[in-house]
Automatic annotation (TrEMBL):
Keywords annotated in UniProt: Glycoprotein, Secreted, Signal
Signal peptide range in chain numbering: none
Function comment: Major thyroid hormone transport protein in serum.
InterPro entries registered for this protein in UniProt: Serpin_CS (IPR023795), Serpin_dom (IPR023796), Serpin_fam (IPR000215), Serpin_sf (IPR036186), Serpin_sf_1 (IPR042178), Serpin_sf_2 (IPR042185)
Family the entry assigns: Belongs to the serpin family.
PROSITE patterns xref list: SERPIN
Superkingdom classification of source: Eukaryota
Biological source species: Perca fluviatilis
Subcellular location: Secreted
Native organism taxonomy: Eukaryota, Metazoa, Chordata, Craniata, Vertebrata
Name of the protein described by the UniProt record: Thyroxine-binding globulin
Residue intervals of the Serpin domain: 87-445
GO terms for cellular component: extracellular space
Keyword Cytoplasm: no
């Protein structure tokens, strides 16, 4: 039997790196020393196509509601699973041939939201693989538990910071394809999915429709997620995250200087280094031989920057427990901190990586997406993911006007220097829930 399924041939274009934070901050030029900002945008797309084969796969049962635990408990189980998933996905991405010697940056939260939304329509082995791949224990969590947990996460994301964080999903459905109403209902109710009908036979127009939506949701940061859609596509699921934050304490742009970044022992590249001497939250993890710096945003979010002696030691071991420990144990002390200004963009096709995490069936002719439709041959054609991160100053000219330098008090003790001038890891997290919005590794800030 032929294992035919449709590829929707998504082609991604690079995002032109618009520094939105610049625009934002220039509106407030009265402020001095206004340094920014993490600006991250991301989107994950799952496209489902209709295959031509038909086969009677085993009869599938939906996941049984074996345990009716309190919803608070299941929310925390899903939260824990999402955190674990972040690091597993990171390691798979980092190990992938296409990631060698490259910066890595992605949003685990967006990927898990997209896959969880897909799991609403998956059954049988395909569903089991999705749950297991996401780290949801099927004997402790039902599909409903998971949906409720994501409902809460998405609401919370919407709640915490109005314009700075934007997280959501959408589903684009072909005019001639009729998904089960229950599927769309759950997407709408628990994943707050915006629903659209499109004519996927009109490949250009439907791609434009999707791109326009994504552009709007990401404040223009991603304006061409999809270039070419296969006319046989019947449905696309999108999950997006947009985050923009201002540092709680800013960097003085006048202290920003050219410096070197040591890509490896033999390679130096010129980088623009921001500098601040201040009391910082830091922690030295002896086990991982890594120094961790927390840069809080002016919100409940923080960026964690991790500078390891040996990247592999950190990469291979880092876990949610480390993040918890660091956030708890961090102490504040004076440091002279140097961080590159950087702007990176990434684009991934996650098919291999997710298959490598055990989620294989959804891509195959044997995919069971009967929760979406009884039509045989539905399968996921591509899962693509795109992210950008800009760490920068904004309103630098305005700061030049004020003439205020950080006052160097007559401190006698030498202040330890913390220079992120060699490969480091980065995480953007919400401090209360420790939800990992974004995660990555900066090997070379200049590419
Ligand atoms: C799922 O939970 C059950 C009950 O707590 C446990 O026995 C089982 O080992 C768990 N499975 C996995 C894969 O963690
Ligand atoms: C988030 O807020 C916007 C604007 O208030 C609203 O349109 C959207 O439905 C909300 N989403 C969620 C998940 O609450
Ligand atoms: C969101 O905010 C509203 C009002 O501020 C509150 O009632 C609600 O519980 C919050 N939802 C979540 C999930 O935090
Ligand atoms: C931080 O946020 C508070 C309240 O949201 C605001 O009043 C303050 O101006 C902000 N500070 C900076 C540096 O943006």
């Amino acid at each position: 039997m032929a294992r035919v399924f449709i590829r929707c041939s998504l082609r991604l274009t690079q995002i032109t790196s618009v520094l939105l934070c610049l625009r934002f901050d220039q509106e407030k030029i009265t402020m001095m020393m206004r340094a920014a900002v993490g600006l991250c945008v991301l989107s994950a797309v799952i496209c489902v196509g209709r295959g031509h084969h038909h086969l009677g796969h085993s009869v599938d049962k939906t996941v049984q509601d074996t345990v009716a635990d309190g919803s608070a408990n299941s929310v925390s189980l899903v939260n824990e699973a999402n955190k674990e998933f972040s690091f597993r996905l990171y390691r798979k991405l980092a190990a992938h041939a296409s990631s060698q010697a490259k910066n890595i940056f992605f949003s685990p939260a967006s990927v898990s939201t997209a896959l969880a939304a897909l799991s609403v329509g998956a059954q049988g082995e395909t569903h089991r693989q999705l749950f297991s791949g996401l780290g949801f224990n099927g004997s402790l969590l039902t599909q409903t538990d998971v949906a409720q947990a994501f409902q809460m996460f998405l609401q919370r994301a919407n709640n915490t910071s109005q314009e700075d964080a934007n997280e959501g999903t959408a589903v684009f459905v072909d005019n001639n394809f009729k998904p089960k109403p229950e599927f769309l209902q759950t997407l709408k109710q628990s994943y707050f999915a915006d629903g659209f009908n499109v004519d996927f036979a009109k490949t250009k127009e439907s791609a434009d429709t999707i791109n326009k939506y994504v552009e709007e949701k990401t404040n223009g940061k991603i304006d061409k997620l999809v270039e070419l859609l296969d006319p046989n596509t019947v449905m696309c699921l999108i999950s997006y995250i947009y985050y923009k934050g201002k540092w709680a304490t800013q960097f003085d742009p006048r202290l920003t200087k050219q410096g070197d970044f040591n890509v490896d022992e033999n390679t130096k590249v010129p980088a623009v280094m921001m500098n601040r001497e201040d009391r910082f939250h830091t922690y030295h993890d002896h086990e991982l031989k890594t120094t961790v710096l927390q840069l809080p945003f002016n919100s409940s979010y923080s960026m964690l920057l991790m500078l390891p002696d040996v990247m592999a030691t950190l990469e291979n071991a880092i876990s949610p427990n480390h993040v918890t420990k660091w956030l708890k144990a961090m102490g504040r002390s004076n440091h002279d901190v140097y961080i590159p200004k950087f702007s990176i963009k990434t684009s991934y096709n996650l098919n291999d990586v997710l298959a490598g995490m055990g989620m294989t069936d959804m891509f195959s002719g044997g995919a069971n997406l009967r929760g979406i439709s009884e039509e045989h041959g539905l399968a996921v054609s591509d899962i693509v993911h795109q992210a950008t991160l800009d760490v920068d100053e904004a309103g630098a000219e305005a700061s030049a006007v004020t003439g205020i330098f950080v006052g160097f008090s007559a401190v006698l003790d030498p202040v330890p220097v913390l220079k992120f001038n060699r490969p480091f890891m980065v995480i953007i997290t919400e401090r209360n829930t420790e939800k990992i919005l974004f995660m990555g590794k900066i090997i070379n800030p200049t590419v």
